[in-house]
Here is the input.
Amino acid sequence: MMRVRDLLQIDNQSLAGKIVKGSLGSFVLSLISTLLSFLLSIMLARVLGANEYGVYAYAISWMTLLSVFARLGLDTLIPRHVASAVAREDWGYIKGIFHFGIVGTGLAASICLVGLWFVGFTLQTASDIRFDSLWLAFILLGVTGLMAPLSGVQRGLQQVIWAQIPSLLVLPLSFLSLVAAAYYYFQDGLSAESILRLQILATIITLGVAVAIFVWYVPREIRIAKSIYEATAWANSLLPLVVTGSAYVLNMNADILLLGALVGTESAGIYKAATRGADLVILGISMINMPLAPIIASLYAKGEMERLQRGVTKTARVGFLLSLPVAICMFFFGHLFLRLFGEEFQTGVVALSILSIGQIINAATGPVGWLLTMTGNEKKAALGISIGVIFNIVFCLFLIPAYGLVGAACATSISTVIWNLMLVYYVRGCLGIDSTIIGMATTVRA
Here is the structure.
């Protein structure tokens, strides 16, 4: 007990102290956000039904996929460079990369909006894919992308809690409130399109809060500094980050997109409910990795590789121990979880069990993606995850027509294991670090 109390002291700047304090705050926010998000998911599933919920999930999957291009990988690039700049007190550099991020996300979002419009125009004649839902999704895309530079700078400054408050607390709370109010006044009039309109409004509110928090908490040294730009170097780092991010998101959404296209949006809605349970398995990992990411960049910049290995091993083991009981519950009692969404979602129980197995293996490999992207090895991360995506799409195309939901879950779980093992290999080769729960690196490289 005394050890934990010491770690939580404000003046404790040890690696364990930073991770514990950041993880504790992230845990509280993630727990609240997860509760609100699941209440929202259950409400949407019950109000809309499997088919309308599937239309909504399909549109959001497209938005999530293209949001990677709208963010340009800046949500990874900015924290990495800001953390390094803080170590050398280069405030003008931080201000410059923030301005670069704002301009970049604005341009990228505009391009993505046009691209998604063409996707929607192409798919508007498909059997049960509605063009209006995709149109609203790309409006949501543009608003969402603008938050990446704001949270990126704050994460790099290790203001992890303030960086997460808008997306983890304000967004789900405002969205849930708007949906509840709309359902109260229009009980029989809600559709996937009306829900998307409410989500756009909630995201605008969240963006306003994010801007206010950023303006209030950004250090004075950054505000008064003269911007320093290294646009060419930053731009050269963006492509592999975009590839990595898009490959990761595509791997997480290919199953829903292909289910919607090959089987129908109702199956996509049922599968989406199953993925909500699988997301719970890695909740512990998410709360730990968020504060760990800028610490990785800082320790790597200082050449403290032995310390980095210890921190990675500890966080990997804690994340796995947090994930294991959740995975067991989802494997054996997934039918109880899916019953919350409605009886028509019960057919996703086998898919939930398979996805949970894949996620527990994901947890055992540790923060492989962050270790590569936060140390300048983003090309290796892009290669590994891209290969995983190729496997996922191929498996989905073969398995979904024959096995439906179960085929999609098998494809996603197998591909997740493949790319995680590849990244473990790359982390060991590039950094000499063992990212897994075993934590037995033979050579730690500076």
Notes: The radius of gyration is 21 Å. The chain is about 85% helix and 0% strand.
